Amino acid sequence: MNIGLVLHPDRVRAREVAEEVVAGAAARGIRVVAADDEAANLPGVVTADLDDAELVLSIGGDGTVLEAVKEALPLGIPVLGVNLGKVGFLAEIEESNIEETLNRIEARQWDIEQRMTLKAEIEDGPTVHGLNDIVISKRMVNRLASLAISVDGVPFRTYRADGIVVATATGSTAYSFSAGGPAVDPGLRAMFVTAVAPHSLFSRTLVFEPDRVLSLVAASDRPVGVEVDAYDLGELSPGQAVRVTAGDMDARFATMGGKRFPHTLQHKLGLDGD
């Protein structure tokens, strides 16, 4: 069998763990392939596209998982994350469980979780899919952004704020959470709209069904940037819109039957101390 490998480019421990994984995989007759230079340069890793991989293994933190999802999403390949980061909501496997995980991979003993994605279509610009969130935010430090939101083509309201985060349930524990949004079980299919530091008495997160069409327009001449899963897509011109919908395809995560979301939330956020 073939498995793909994506690792954090700047973390020494990620490379060390990756070397352990590659050696353990070889001992089990598993071929490790990689498309990016960082992983492909490891001894024992074959430089190749991920098309024939049954699984993509991510080694790093949640950002590395997002990078792996970007590569695996159009191929429909499931992603399994090894957590070397500080929080790691997306990476299920801890470093201490690598040998057991390789045994499960060899036996093809994993289940699949489907996660909703988002699609950002910039007017006269690119279309990009993301797993966590789409962020439209100010580029001038001391000036608010003005962002007009429409829902299914009907004007809803105009926010004056540092930005707007449109998140999936999976992304609810990322930037959306730090902006005051709720932590949501990742199996829920919905879009969560949270204003970042709004100049308004109303600051609650809005929750929309996944079949809604959201349009966010730069409503002033101040520069506004667009990011999808922290990837910078550039700026919106005044009057230019980004259309946000549910993605055309779900992200697929391999799971070894680890801890469920309530336990993960307790552990990662320190809620289990009482």
Characterization of this structure:
The protein has 274 residues and is of the alpha+beta class. The protein folds into 2 domains: 2-115 and 250-268, Rossmann fold, CATH 3.40.50.10330; 118-246, Tumour Suppressor Smad4. The chain is 19% helix and 37% strand. It has helices at 12-27, 37-40, 62-72, 98-106, 175-178, 261-268, and strands spanning 2-7, 31-34, 46-47, 55-60, 79-83, 93-94, 111-115, 118-122, 127-130, 133-138, 145-151, 154-161, 163-167, 191-196, 206-208, 214-218, 224-228, 231-236, 241-246, 251-255. Strands 3-2-1-4-5-6 form a 6-stranded parallel beta sheet, with helices on both faces. The protein is elongated, with a radius of gyration of 20 Å.
Q: How are the secondary structure elements laid out?
A:
Blueprint: E1 2-7, H1 12-27, E2 31-34, H2 37-40, E3 46-47, E4 55-60, H3 62-72, E5 79-83, E6 93-94, H4 98-106, E7 111-115, E8 118-122, E9 127-130, E10 133-138, E11 145-151, E12 154-161, E13 163-167, H5 175-178, E14 191-196, E15 206-208, E16 214-218, E17 224-228, E18 231-236, E19 241-246, E20 251-255, H6 261-268
Parallel strand pairs: 1-2, 1-4, 2-3, 4-5, 5-6
Antiparallel strand pairs: 7-20, 8-9, 8-19, 10-13, 10-17, 11-12, 11-16, 13-14, 14-15, 16-19, 17-18
Strands ordered across the widest β-sheet: 3-2-1-4-5-6
* Structural domains: how many: 2
Structural Rg:
20 Å
In CATH's first tier, which class of the largest domain applies?
Alpha Beta
Distance between the termini: 45 Å
Write the H/E string, N to C. EHEHEEHEEHEEEEEEEHEEEEEEEH
What is the CATH architecture descriptor of the largest domain? 3-Layer(aba) Sandwich
Q: What is the helix tally?
A: 6
CATH superfamily of the largest domain: Probable inorganic polyphosphate/atp-NAD kinase, domain 1
- Mean pLDDT, all residues: 92
Contiguous runs where pLDDT drops below 50 for at least 5 residues: none
CATH topology of the largest domain: Rossmann fold
What is the oligomeric state here? single chain
Q: What is the strand content?
A: 35-45%
Number of separate strands: 20
Helix content: 10-25%
Taking the sheet with the most strands, its summary is:
6 strands, parallel
